[in-house]
Amino acid sequence: xxxxxxxxxxxxxxxxxxxxxxxxxxxxxxxxxxxxxxxxxxxxxxxxxxxxxxxxxxxxxxxxxxxxxxxxxxxxxxxxxxxxxxxxxxxxxxxxxxxxxxxxxxxxxxxxxxxxxxxxxxxxxxxxxxxxxxxxxxxxxxxxxxxxxxxxxxxxxxxxxxxxxxxxxxxxxxxxxxxxxxxxxxxxxxxxxxxxxxxxxxxxxxxxxxxxxxxxxxxxxxxxxxx
Length: 227
Fold this sequence. Notes:
It holds the Pfam family ATP-synt_A. The protein is mostly helical. It is 68% helix and 2% strand.
């Protein structure tokens, strides 16, 4: 019984072909196709407004050099948001519950921000490893601590996204299973758990949106330190 709860996090296969590739490409179908006009209907206008607002929010703390990353960060935000929300639908698979995928997204982008800082301002980037005014005996220890905290940033990004989405999916499955089991035994309790399930689903929609935003926001903060 315990193993069945985690079956939803296994990557599905069909004839030996991993279907995770289809789930990664599916959000692109939701984007509007290019037309002769920028805005063709209300949905396109809403999508354009959302992309503009998100890009503006992410780019506000950065200077003009950081605005070169606007397309990458905005695309990543929309990609994660689409996958997280689509994963809440019944009989779907959420790729962002896989730690390997989240690390594959976090590590290259974090490394790119780090290399950008080392190339453009190496002294300032290395200066973050040693706070100003540090006593001389504490310098080696602080350098090791700051280096460790710097190196675990991509791991923290991936684990945070994976853990929050995995916990939410498990709670939804546990409560929905309890609702189905109690329906024939105690209908009143089953209705109560169904109400809890509805509230939890609304909460998970918010978590899916917030986690996508936090993932990209932290990357923009890492970029801000290095430009």
